[in-house]
Request: fold
Amino acid sequence: MYTRQKDIAKKTGFSINTISLALRGSSRISEETRNIINQVAEELNYIPNDVAVSLVKRKTKTIGVILTEVANPILTYTAQQIEQCLAAKGYTMVLMTTRHNQANEAKALDLLIARRVDGILMYPVMPWNLDKIVSLRKTNHPVILLGFGEYSSPVDAVYVDKAKGAFKAVEHLARLGHKEIVFINDGAAGASEKLKGYKAALEEWGLRYEPELIIKPNGFGYENGYNAAARIFEKKRPTAIFASMDYLALGALRWCIKNGLDVPGDVAIVGSDDIEAARFSEVPLTTVNYPVGKVTLQATDLLFKLLSSNSKLDSIEPQKIIIEPNLVIRESCGAKMKKDSL
Amino acid sequence: MYTRQKDIAKKTGFSINTISLALRGSSRISEETRNIINQVAEELNYIPNDVAVSLVKRKTKTIGVILTEVANPILTYTAQQIEQCLAAKGYTMVLMTTRHNQANEAKALDLLIARRVDGILMYPVMPWNLDKIVSLRKTNHPVILLGFGEYSSPVDAVYVDKAKGAFKAVEHLARLGHKEIVFINDGAAGASEKLKGYKAALEEWGLRYEPELIIKPNGFGYENGYNAAARIFEKKRPTAIFASMDYLALGALRWCIKNGLDVPGDVAIVGSDDIEAARFSEVPLTTVNYPVGKVTLQATDLLFKLLSSNSKLDSIEPQKIIIEPNLVIRESCGAKMKKDSL
DNA sequence: TTGAAAGCGCTAACAC
DNA sequence: GTGTTAGCGCTTTCAA
Reply:
């Protein structure tokens, strides 16, 4: 079915070894024979067998990428960026998703190791339970963790400083003069850090922290944000809302408008993540972004650094790279005029 | 670094072959020795080397997936679905993106073939230039094309009937009483089929086809839809708009609202693709969906059918599977009352 | 400049 | 039941 070097050898009369060298452009082979060999290879439609190469080289030029899902636009974009980075270096990506299930994650890791990927980039399901990753590191398997929050275990990781993001959002609102800033905080990974940032910003601006202003939605969706807003305005009249996810913010935005509140006139809203829908909502949403590009770039860089180092992983200190998010200012916070947009 | 079967053999005193069989649970090996071997394997932390297995079995249990990009939500979702389907069958996915560039596509194909993937699923960059795929098929490489439009070449493919989708959209508008239905039609793959569907629906409802109602935007984005709407209303007062992509529809929607037109009261709007933003727009968008689940399921099914058939690909007729899209009715067309939603 | 031999880690066919 | 041998397609010494 496939042409092998052996076939070219037979046809040209050279040894397999010569074929192998010639095809790889070795200067140890005379140009003349190299030409002959290349030509015959072409004729026979020779396609190298990377599987065999991987076996002898003990390198697959493949990186495993494990995501919790890919519906999340941030992860989607991450996957895309990673693929590009890897392709540029001649590497290939095996993509697996865990659907937030730890058993799937374990299976994925095992499979990737069995396939002998050279390294792994992953968003862990449970950022607080990283034993497996730690032990993989001990057996010299490079795994870089990406993420939304801090990792305390001794692992290599690149993540976004969520506390800083929340701080920036709340500070921005405080600077605009808001005194009562609601925080719709989902319970997902990073929730406590976001809260930390929220509190820090309040303190910085001399505002009192009021627990009633913290509201926990019943989920991560649009509807949950809508309902959360309904709950808030039942008893309070805050002038600003910061939400830990854009969908929550968008849901709250919808509730406000539906109930005759002007955004940002009556209430300013800031979300988190900068998903696409944030840009196209009825009032374009100001939001804390997640710098996907930086994260993936740093992560792949770190990975390749580990791959090219010839010392044992065990002898290298785990590295943590922290990325700072930025505030994307649109209309929903009142800092920018409506006229600017379409 | 890695434990090999040889190491287990040495430690237990059995031959490599016995180890191999035992680890695969062969009944030819006595339970006793199997237990011993498994235990030692565990002790030594044995992890099979799939690369070696692939080499001898001439099967990699890997499927290559080539997408034009992954930012497009449809493709994202596709990638996710495919990964799931493949994982369920013990297959793994190598994902590559072409960024709509034919050279990248060719490179990706070559690489995947060199890696000896068992099959390929792909969204081609140029649906009308499929020579490479055709010749791959001749050399027994199963490639299933997914897509947005028809493929005329002799290839295996699963695609959505765009003409039917356009027909459904326009018919719906006609049924609601609209006489002047604008068609914002991007020039991408499938444009002519969509036009066919548009015309067919008009004819079915006894409406005249007016070329001035067909408008070609200057791109695929939100702004292009906005500008297209501006151009339309300069000279016409249509009551309905059908757009070949949701972004175009969303942009048109924004223009209408900004210019004091009520949607759907004054003008009804229908988009295509059912991207997420369609659900969360200021007026939730009625749109023709793209049944990703069905497409991927059929595509993987077809692929596995080809993989399990032991006759040469050349002797099997190329198969084309056509999927019919559905109309997702929301508020922007006026068929559903606003009260229903948040 | 080219070739011979060994080996990457595993499975398969056959023998015992 | 278990071992022996050969081989998957390639690279890598080492020799000529």
Remarks:
- Chain B touches chain A through 51 residues (CB under 8 Å).
- Residues 2, 4-6, 16-17, 20-21, 24, 48-49, 51-57 of chain B lie near DNA strand C (CB under 10 Å from a C1').
- Chain B is about 45% helix and 15% strand.
